[in-house]
Structures are given as C-alpha cells and as structure tokens.
C-alpha cells in the first residue's frame, strides 16, 4: 500500500485523532463508571453510560450491550425499543447491523455489501504487533494497514501488563470506528500461558492429566483472560500429533496419541469458544467466546529427522509409515466435531511443510497453504470445513538468501512473487494470509482469478471468503461491544485473583508425572513442618545456538548461575539450603551489558557434611538442549542429528537413514518445475555419521554429582525434569531415587508434589525412549512406535505411565487410552 494522502484517509485520520484524544489520559486508574448526566434513558428504555476510557456503554436491557466511541462520529439507530449501531451511516437498520439476527445471516449480508478492496483487507492477517507505546498506540505501521482495510491483528505484546493491552485494543477500535470502513478490529494472540495472564498448563501438560475436563477448564480460563484484553481470536490450539520425539514444537501439542489428542483438542476448544451462563450451561457463541484457529492443517509434526517447518532444513514432512491419515484425527474427529454448541473450531491455519512423496500421493510438492490436495480436496471437500482458513505466517515473502522465508515449493522468484503466491493460496481455498499487511497482494490475486474464472466467479469466491472471515466477528460480538474496560484487566489479571490462580495451579499439579519413587521417598506430608532440602544452584556455561525461526544466525549466550526455581516459591514449601556464588565474578564480560559473568570456579558447592541434616537433595534439571533444535544443522550448514540425550550422540547405527527420503532437486531446480518427484535426483539430507551439538551437557554432570553427594550423605536424591518433549533418562536414572516430570515449567506445581501437598496423578502423553538407537528406529509419521526405557525398579516409561503413592497408576484413563493407536479418522 502506498502512503499517498487521500481525502478519505485524511478524514479518517482526523476523526480517529479526535477519538483517540478522548482516550488519552485514561490509560491508568479508574473503573468504567456512569454519572447522573451520562446515563440517560433513550427511546423505550435503553441507556447510555459514559466510561472513564472514552467509550460509551449502551444497555439494551434484555438485548445486546453495545459500546462505541462518541467522538468517532458513529450514531445509534433506535428500533423496537432497542439501540443498534449505524455502521452504514444511513439511519436505516440493515441486516448486518441487527444483533437479533444470526451470525450467518449478518456475515452473509455484510459480505455482499462491502467492496472487493475491503474484502482484500479482511483477507490479510497482520504481522506480529509487539510494541505498546502509551503515547502512540495507533502507530504509523498500524495506521497504514488499518487504512488499507486490514482488521485481523496479531497481538504479540504479551510482555506488557494486561491493562495496557486493553488500552491498545480500545485505541485501535476507536481509530477504525472513526474511519469510513467501520468494520471492527479482531485481535488475536498466540498461546501465552503465564505471560501477563494466568498460568494455566500448556498443552502437553494438559495432555498429561488425561482429563478432557481439565483441558476445557484451561481453555475457558485462557479465553477469559484474552477477552479482558480485547482479544477474541486465538491462534490455538496446536492440534498436530507429535509423532516424532525430536520435533521442536512437541511441547505445543497434546502429545503423540491420536485418541488422547482428539479428546483434549475437542474439550479445549469447547472451553475457548463456548460462552456459559451463570449456571454453567453452554450457550454457544457469545460475549465471552474466543474463536479458535486450530493449527497446522493437515499436520506439521512429521518433519524428516525431527526438523521443523519454519526453516529450509525442516520444510519436508515425510511418511515412511504411510500414516498420513492418522495425523488428521485430532482435527477431523476433534476440532471439527465439538461436543459444545459452537459445533466446530471457527478457523484453521495451514502448515508450512511440504508433504513429500515421489508419486504425489499427498498432492503437489508445495506448502500446505498452496496445496489443492490439502485445502480444496481434503479440508473443504472430504471433511467439509466451513470456517476461515489462514496460512501460517509470512509464506508470501520472497526468499531473502539468508534463511528467512517459508514459501516452500514456490521459492523461484523468476516465477513466483508475493502477489502470485497470494493468488495461489486463494485459488486453493485459503481465506487469509498470515503476517500480511498489504491488501494489494490480494487485489492482485483477485485480478488473477478474474482472468482465470471470469469476474462473476472471482467475486463470488472473494465474497465467500469474506463471509467465512466475518463469521468470527459476529460470533464474538465485535460489531456490538468491541471495547473493554482496562480496569477489569488490571484488577483481575495484573492484580492476581487468588481464586483463579488456585484453579490454574490445581490444573498444573494434575499435569505433573512421577516416573520414579524408589522407596517411597515422595509421600504425603505429615504435620506442618517444612522438609529441609538442598537445592544445588544451576550453572549453565556460555553456549552458541542457532536462531529458531526466520533469519539463520548463531549467537552466544553468556554463562549463568542461579537458583533453578524461584526462591519465594521454594520457601513456601521447603526450608532451603543451597550453594554459594562468589560476590566477585571472574568469567568473561557479557557482550551486551559489559558485566562480568560467572565462571564455574565462582561456585562453591555444599559438602556431604553441610547437608547432613537435610531431608533430601532436590535437583531441578533442564532437558537436553540442541544448539539448532529446529533446523538440525551445524554452523557449516551440515545436517546433524537432533538428540534427546545430554552427551553428544553420533548417528552411526544401522538404523540411521543414509539417504534422506526428501530433499530439493540436486540440479538446483525447484519442485514447481516438475510434475512429481518420480525419477528426479534429489539432494541427500542425511546426517549419518555426524554428531549432535548440545548446549547443556554439563546438566547431566550436575545431576550425577548431586546424586553422588546425596549418597555420600545418606540422603535421597529427587530430580525434577523440566521437559517439553521426550528425553533419554538412561544416563542418570539408576543414580537417583525419584524423578518428576513437569511439562509446562510450573515450579510451584512440582514443589507441591515433592513436598507431599498433592499426590501425583499425571500420566505420560508420550513415550520415553530406551536410547537414541530407538529414536532412529521410529518413523516420523507413526506415534508410539519406540521401545521405551525400563528403570531400575522395573517400570517402563511408556505412553500412559505414571506413579502415585501406591505405585503404577491403573484407572479409567489408562483403560481408555492405553490401547493401540488409531490409524484413520472416523469422519
């Protein structure tokens, strides 16, 4: 979009400036209130109440509550004793303005009224908005894309307090309301557990509860936080099956079992999307609803070698087990078949990856957002999904020569431009372009479609996309009540509500899995005395790692040394003793701050004599960390194995693939130039004979040293593993007495279990492999296909394994889910 100042843009900007002036000075303090002269009876009974934040609330009694900025120029229409917002500015009520009609009727009406240029704006989903400047809430970037008609906005400002995010939402709503195009903004967010909202368990920890009702509660809790910040669309849940244990996005999933993932996804979305009344009854869509955008259709988790689709190294998904259909089960039988009254997830996001097969069994060799087979044939055709489909972010961008692109299959810039890629996505049935601020790309797609299908068919297709996109606005009441009270966000999120926090913590506790408890060292607390524990400080040496997404760059983080859990949390449950770090540090200066960093010699560990009176040693360990966890490459660009163990692993067993399944054509051509991969020589992406690159091998040394010290002092050693995917525990299991697994980093939940405040009940939503050879044996697209580790007590760490005080858990959950994995959708 250009920056030319037109009369329309000038008027829109001037009106918006007036609206924002009404919001200025209201960014802190004060609850939305009415005064005697601000609350007025209108017509047959509705009232208007001015708030402290520049917007007015309209109470329609038994009808819908409205809100609007009186400085925006928007007027109300009175009909049948109720107030309606006059978006058209005609004084006459048209169907989409009538909140008494269904969302489908209203979306159909509006989609038929707006211009193709406005539809092009709706088909864009903004790039990440990370900054909140109190004095410039609607900054120049936002003005540009809003003036172009973009209305879906990705709020990535989770580092800011909730009330500031509410202020941002209100300012944007006032800006668009003051423009000619008064379609409200629909703010969205990625998952953000614990980041200026309540710390509900992440998906993998929810899966460990094996209880869909907990997932539903967590979904509803997260939706409540988002709505208070003005967010009504959720780029969640991640519905992929984590069929490869090395995959870096394993932690965002509900584990590796299709049936468990299906049920957790279904219940989580019911919690996110359904508005419930005061009696807890599901009302379907409503003012408390958030639209779920499930991702990443048709499944993202089968990257060859465990590599991840944000990078060129991970762009190919492979199916050596011919298990493509099974990976769709949580989408088709879960997200698209809800038990709640909303019926189906509102939206879906396509995956980055190219589903590779030399015979094109899974369609042409392009990313899913460009794939006729994935979108037209499967999503829209076979499975009949009627919501909006959005690409993952930035797939329209040209390759920049620096590893910063994701337009897989359409990389050839002599053929493909951002506009042509947009046209391709629209052609196959995608409605929105993730991370795109430029509606002119969609106008180009429209012109292409006109040339191919004729103007009538092109317009029909674009208006169908507009309706699908607009449904989310009407489902969630954005046209009626888009403004939010920043004071509510401040008092219920920024200032912790203890009741909500307690519910979130209870859910976290249910996701803690006890793998080992030799001699019953973890047991129910007796009396009120806190156990005395030695918690070794965690020293992490300087490490060089690759960027996870976007431009490939290697950066070195300085060494750190700290107590591994929050001291205040530890001291709620334990009498803590720990090591001593020297006052004067002797490590190299940090490149950014110039401050000295810790050297290992600066740390003085306690001795056996020092811990003679403790009850046990508590080691808090991070999982093995690969230097290039998403890309699986070294600094020279060579493919290397992704490892699940601390010690360096060399991939030289007979089970390591010496010739990769997938790759680009070896002659430098692009797959778009070939009808199929049959007979085409491809590059070899094998890592056979190469060694993993780990950044925290010393974590294993610290576990073993602490275990040895505990033995010397005659004390039990308990390890809390903070993990986000499976790992190899054979390196240390036999040396320790107890192992707990936390899958969403809740320090307090793990502490409660160790201290005997709560009995563990979690189960593994994944397998823990015997060793790395077993990892190499398994197939990227097949879940639960490894030989699992058996510990010194004879317990095997398989899917659905977990211990409580009595031993191995066997209950209705294990009976239901510990069966052979499903292989195809029911639908």
From TrEMBL:
Keywords noted in UniProt: Glycosidase, Hydrolase, Signal
Using the record, list the residue span of the signal peptide; answer none if the entry has no such feature. Answer: 1-32
Every Glycoside hydrolase family 3 N-terminal domain range: 139-470
Organism domain of life: Bacteria
**A GO MF label:** hydrolase activity
Reply yes or no: does the keyword Ubl conjugation apply: no
Q: What class of enzyme is it?
A: hydrolase
PROSITE patterns, A to Z: PROKAR_LIPOPROTEIN, TAT
Which InterPro entries does the entry mention? Cellulose_Degrad_GH3, GH, Glyco_hydro_3_C, Glyco_hydro_3_C_sf, Glyco_hydro_3_N, Glyco_hydro_3_N_sf, TAT_signal, TAT_signal_bac_arc
Q: Which Pfam families match?
A: Glyco_hydro_3 (PF00933), Glyco_hydro_3_C (PF01915)
Q: What is its EC number?
A: 3.2.1.21
Q: Which reaction does it catalyse?
A: Hydrolysis of terminal, non-reducing beta-D-glucosyl residues with release of beta-D-glucose
Specify the Glycoside hydrolase family 3 C-terminal domain's residue ranges.
576-805
What family does the database annotate? Belongs to the glycosyl hydrolase 3 family.
The protein's name is beta-glucosidase
């Amino acid at each position: 979009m250009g920056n030319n100042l037109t009369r329309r843009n000038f008027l829109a900007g001037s009106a918006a400036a007036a609206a924002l002036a009404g919001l200025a000075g209201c960014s802190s303090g004060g609850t939305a209130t009415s005064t005697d002269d601000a609350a007025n009876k209108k017509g047959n009974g509705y009232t208007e109440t001015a708030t402290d934040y520049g917007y007015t609330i309209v109470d329609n009694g038994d009808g819908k509550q409205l809100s609007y900025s009186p400085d925006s120029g928007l007027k109300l229409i009175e009909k049948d004793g109720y107030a309606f917002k006059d978006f058209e500015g005609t004084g006459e009520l048209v169907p989409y303005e009538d909140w008494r009609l269904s969302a489908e009727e209203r979306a159909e009406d509006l989609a038929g009224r707006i211009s193709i240029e406005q539809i092009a704006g709706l088909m864009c989903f903004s790039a990440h908005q990370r900054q909140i400047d109190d004095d410039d809430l609607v900054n120049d970037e936002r003005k540009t894309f809003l003036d172009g008609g973009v209305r879906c906005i990705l709020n990535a400002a989770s580092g800011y307090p909730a009330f500031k995010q509410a202020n941002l939402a209100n300012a944007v709503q006032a800006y668009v309301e003051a423009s000619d195009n008064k379609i409200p903004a629909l703010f969205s967010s990625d998952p953000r557990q614990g980041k200026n909202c309540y710390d509900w368990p992440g998906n993998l920890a929810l899966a460990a509860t094996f209880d869909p009702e907990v997932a539903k509660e967590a979904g509803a809790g997260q939706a409540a936080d988002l709505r208070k910040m003005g967010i009504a669309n959720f780029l969640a849940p991640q519905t992929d099956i984590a069929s490869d244990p090395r995959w870096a996005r394993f932690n965002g999933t509900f584990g590796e079992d299709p049936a468990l993932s299906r049920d957790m996804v279904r219940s989580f979305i019911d919690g996110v999307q359904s508005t419930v009344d005061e009696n807890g009854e599901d009302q379907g869509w409503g003012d408390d609803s958030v639209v779920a955008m499930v991702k990443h259709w048709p499944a993202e988790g089968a990257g060859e070698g465990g590599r991840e689709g944000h990078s060129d190294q991970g762009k190919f998904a492979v199916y050596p087990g011919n298990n493509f259909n099974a990976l769709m089960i949580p989408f088709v039988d879960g997200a698209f078949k809800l038990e709640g009254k909303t019926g189906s997830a509102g939206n879906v996001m396509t995956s980055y990856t190219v589903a590779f097969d030399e015979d094109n069994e899974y369609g042409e060799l392009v990313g899913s957002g460009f794939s006729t087979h994935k979108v037209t044939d499967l999503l829209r055709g076979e499975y009949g999904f009627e919501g909006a489909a959005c690409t993952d972010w930035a797939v329209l961008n040209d390759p920049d020569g620096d590893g910063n692109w994701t337009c897989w299959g359409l990389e050839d810039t002599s053929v493909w431009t951002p506009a042509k890629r947009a046209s391709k996505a629209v052609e196959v049935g995608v409605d929105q372009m993730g991370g795109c601020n430029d509606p002119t790309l969609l106008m180009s797609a429209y012109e292409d479609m006109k040339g191919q299908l004729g103007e009538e068919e092109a317009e029909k297709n674009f208006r169908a996309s507009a309706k699908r996109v607009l449904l989310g606005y009407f489902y969630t009441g954005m046209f009626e009540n888009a403004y939010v009270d920043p004071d509510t966000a401040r008092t219920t999120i920024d200032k912790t509500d203890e009741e909500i926090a307690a519910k979130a913590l209870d859910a976290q506790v249910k996701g803690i899995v006890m793998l080992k408890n030799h001699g019953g060292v973890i047991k129910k607390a007796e009396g009120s005395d806190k156990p005395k524990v030695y918690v070794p400080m965690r020293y992490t040496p300087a490490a060089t790692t690759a960027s996870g997404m976007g431009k490939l760059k290697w950066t070195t983080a300085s060494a750190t040394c700290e107590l591994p859990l929050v001291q205040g949390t530890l001291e709620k449950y334990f009498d803590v003793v720990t090591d001593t770090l020297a006052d004067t540090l002797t490590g190299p200066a940090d490149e950014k701050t110039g401050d000295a960093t810790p050297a290992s010699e600066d740390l003085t560990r306690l001795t056996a004599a020092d811990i003679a009176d403790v009850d046990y040693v508590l080691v808090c360990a991070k999982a093995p960390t690969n230097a290039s966890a998403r890309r699986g490459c070294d600094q020279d660009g060579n493919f290397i194995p992704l490892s699940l163990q601390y010690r360096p692993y060399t991939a030289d067993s007979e089970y390591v693939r010496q010739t990769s399944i997938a790759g680009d054509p070896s002659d430098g051509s692009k797959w778009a130039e070939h009808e199929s991969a049959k007979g085409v020589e491809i590059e070899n992406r094998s890592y056979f004979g190469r060694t993993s690159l780990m950044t925290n091998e010393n974590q294993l040394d610290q576990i073993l040293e602490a275990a040895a010290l505990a033995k010397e002092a005659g004390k039990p050693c308990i390890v809390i593993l903070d993990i986000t995917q499976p790992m190899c525990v054979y390196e240390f299991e036999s040396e320790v007495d107890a192992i707990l697994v936390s899958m969403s980093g809740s320090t307090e939940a793990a502490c409660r279990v160790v201290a005997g405040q709560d009995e563990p009940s979690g189960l593994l939503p994944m397998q823990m492999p015997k060793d790395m050879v077993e990892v190499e044996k398994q197939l990227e697209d097949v879940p639960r296909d490894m030989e699992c580790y058996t510990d010194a007590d004879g317990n095997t760490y398989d899917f659905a394994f977990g211990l409580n005080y009595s031993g191995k858990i066997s209950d209705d959950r294990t009976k239901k889910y510990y069966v052979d994995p499903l292989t195809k959708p029911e639908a």
